[in-house]
From TrEMBL, chains A, B:
Entry-linked InterPro entries: AceGlu_kinase-like_sf (IPR036393), ACT-like_dom_sf (IPR045865), ACT_Aspartokinase (IPR054352), ACT_dom (IPR002912), AKii-LysC-BS (IPR041740), Asp/Glu/Uridylate_kinase (IPR001048), Asp_kin_monofn (IPR005260), Asp_kinase (IPR001341)
Cross-referenced Gene3D superfamilies: Acetylglutamate kinase-like, VC0802-like
Keywords on record: Amino-acid biosynthesis, ATP-binding, Diaminopimelate biosynthesis, Kinase, Lysine biosynthesis, Nucleotide-binding, Repeat, Transferase
Subunit architecture: Tetramer consisting of 2 isoforms Alpha (catalytic and regulation) and of a homodimer of 2 isoforms Beta (regulation).
Organism for this UniProt entry: Alicyclobacillus acidoterrestris (strain ATCC 49025 / DSM 3922 / CIP 106132 / NCIMB 13137 / GD3B)
MF terms (GO), sorted A to Z: aspartate kinase activity; ATP binding
PANTHER family xref list: ASPARTATE KINASE (PTHR21499), ASPARTOKINASE 2 (PTHR21499:SF68)
Any one annotated GO CC term: cytosol
GO biological-process terms attached to the record: diaminopimelate biosynthetic process; homoserine biosynthetic process; lysine biosynthetic process via diaminopimelate
Keyword ATP-binding: yes
Stated family: Belongs to the aspartokinase family.
Role according to the record: Catalyzes the phosphorylation of the beta-carboxyl group of aspartic acid with ATP to yield 4-phospho-L-aspartate, which is involved in the branched biosynthetic pathway leading to the biosynthesis of amino acids threonine, isoleucine and methionine.
Catalytic activity: L-aspartate + ATP = 4-phospho-L-aspartate + ADP
UniProt protein name: Aspartokinase
Length: 417, 417
């Protein structure tokens, strides 16, 4: 089997941990597999480089920042390869350009465009394990980086290009849980989630895998496994879910939540003004990320629109919206802070009506107010008071995970959506 | 003018110093020059990387060591380019491979074989200052390093390839002195030395410039200047010396010295055995550097040979020589430690007989024993007791530098060699 293994910053955080990672790679090879390894920078070394750059310039040049940050992975890759060679396992470190990872010609957040695998193939065929620097590539002879979670993306892209049998993401948690175990003691590790579920869970705060990496894995059908580099426990598989595998699964896979949510409502936006387009374009151009958007028609001539932003962005966002009042002629802007978002996620929802209703009933029974609702095919999100978020997650975990563990799908299906 | 500037580790030892270097580069450009900059790694950052490698393996793999160490210069080059861009001076950092620096396919001590200057030329012509990582190159797609003093070599190689008008080596001393100012207060900075003089001075302990860089500068006729990055003082020019410029120069340019010298004498080596070749080949293959070698014929059938080694190598060297006694049939091995070497260096010696004699007279008058003598066209070296080395340097500095400052060449020429 050809295995791509990615080790995150914590997993290679010290020379001692690099030794353990080398041992794990050697064991994988001893079991008869071929390995391609992708590493992040050691622990907080990237932060140290960022601090240096800040001492040099308030807004460091993006090209130079990439060249600076890329050294972090080069250090960990060299040390890991050095350790493997020392242990008698042939290995070679490869930087982004050496591994043939071509990206868009942008800095700080480039996307991988193609991988020239000739050199990697040659190493693998010669029994030499390539240790590839994550997070980086090359464009027009310049070093580029892939942005946050970039090493996950590198690993998935390499697995896709090499047609690897599996891509193992080693991190400091041992898999994906039904919800945050710090909030719900009964949270349990999932043996399997779908790419889409993982995307919703990743976006909603289960920061185990970067969403872009999951998207790519889905697109190229790369089987992923998330597991811990500190134990030998089985991790969580992230896979495509077919109609067949869907049968017998729980309706809800996990409960995600997000704190620091604020709501902005724009009241009485005249319909003929294309006001919505203007408002959200303006917010985007100022770098304000908008999450849930809910619109309702007040009368034939105007709409009310509500949306959530990350709480620290609230004042800025309200300022931007208010600056548009004169041109858009809306009535007023309202704001509400101290909110949170709680979501149930599960591919099984598609074929199970009534899931949303069970969520509302659960929250009502727990006496938790719901300020906004948003749904997708595999997710229902409710905006609730920040103070109630942990109670909401616990109650929903009981309803959908703990109780459902014994419940049948047909039972869930009998509820009214 | 096209100026190559090389900044050593101390000169870029902190972000504050990098800011000062950026200012100096900007000033050079403001005076109408084009700049290509070569940087070493920040301060002791290379030592930190070496320490990491030692935690990974007793004998780190050479390829991975090069890849690891190369990050040091990449960090300083990125930060310096970042600073220049921040100051409004267009600049781009280039690693060894980006700058087109091809080397031999060996690790740890590669020689530059060629430089593909297209990218550098393009940047220079576009008004963008290239900031090149010193000490490193590329061979067969692998990162190589040039060994100790490698950044000097990079700078000279780039100056030669780009036909630069001058190569300025910025360091933490303000030039080359007639001798070590810590030993002789009257030591004065030289405005000019020849490549050959610089080579002898560099080899003999004035560690301002790496000998290989001086050799290359001589070979490609690159005009060098050694100066301080901490002041605006004029430095020392290292140039070719012609018959014309030789006239009017002092006979002796500088007094070099080296401590920790030990002497080994092999007595009664039979002539027919090719014993010398065996002895010195054996020492070389064990990594023992031999410096002064003196041989004298005892009778028609045997020779005595004496040579010096670095004192810490003495026991090892004696052991190697003694192990050859059975096969080479020499009489015995003698050893002497606690020695030092003092040398007078000057291109003017070639045309001035009697310089050696004046050296011996000076040492005799100072009551200093001379154990070995070795001469080249521009150097006379004497091995003396370690305890006497500072007195020897002072006395020779008086004779050849301080007194000669007023003396004429013809006067020196009248002495008998």
């Amino acid at each position: 089997m050809l295995v791509v293994q990615k080790y995150g910053g914590t997993s290679v955080g010290s020379t001692e941990r690099i030794r353990l990672v080398a041992q794990r790679i050697q064991n994988t090879i001893a079991r008869g597999h071929q390995c391609v390894v992708v590493v992040s920078a050691m622990g907080h070394s990237t932060d140290a480089l960022v601090d240096l750059a800040k001492e040099i310039a308030d807004v460091p040049d993006a090209r130079e920042m990439d060249s600076l940050l890329a050294t972090g992975e080069q250090v960990s890759a060299s040390l890991l390869a050095m350790r493997l060679v020392h242990m008698g396992t042939p290995a070679q470190s490869l930087t982004g350009w050496q591994a043939g990872i071509a990206t868009e010609d942008v800095h700080g957040n480039a996307r991988v465009t193609s991988i020239e695998t000739a050199r990697l193939r040659q190493l693998i065929d010669s029994g030499i394990t390539p240790i590839v620097t994550g997070f980086q590539g090359i464009a027009n002879g310049n070093i580029t980086t892939l942005g946050r979670g970039g090493s996950d993306t590198s690993a998935v892209a390499l697995a896709a290009a090499l047609h690897a049998d599996i891509c193992e993401i080693y991190t400091d948690v041992d898999g994906v849980y039904t919800t945050d175990p710090r909030v719900v003691q009964a949270a349990r590790k999932l043996t399997e989630v779908s790419y889409d579920e993982m995307l919703e869970l990743a976006n909603l705060g289960a920061q185990v895998l970067h969403p872009r990496a999951v998207e790519n894995a889905k697109h190229f059908a790369v089987p992923l496994v998330v597991r811990s580099s500190f134990s030998d426990e089985e991790g969580t598989s992230v896979v495509a879910i077919t109609e067949q595998t869907l049968e017998g699964r729980q309706v809800v896979t996990g409960i995600a939540f997000e704190r620091q949510v604020a709501r902005i409502a724009v009241i009485g936006v005249p319909l003929q003004q294309h006001g919505l387009a203007t408002i959200f374009s303006e917010l985007a151009s100022h770098g304000v990320n908008v999450d849930v958007i809910v619109q309702s028609v007040v009368d034939a001539a105007a709409v009310d629109v509500s949306f959530t932003v990350h709480e620290p962005d609230l004042t800025k966002a309200v300022g931007i919206v208010e600056s548009l009042q004169e041109s858009l002629h809306f009535t007023r802007v309202e704001r509400q802070s101290d909110l949170a978002k709680v979501s149930i996620v599960g591919a099984g929802m598609i074929s199970n009506p009534g899931v949303a209703a069970r969520m509302f009933v659960t929250l009502r029974d727990a006496n938790i107010a719901v300020h906004m609702v948003s749904t997708s095919e595999i997710k229902v999100s409710c905006v609730v008071p920040a103070d109630d978020v942990e109670r909401a997650v616990k109650a929903l975990h009981v309803t959908f995970v703990e109780a459902d563990a014994e419940a049948s799908l047909s039972e869930a299906g009998s509820a009214v959506k």
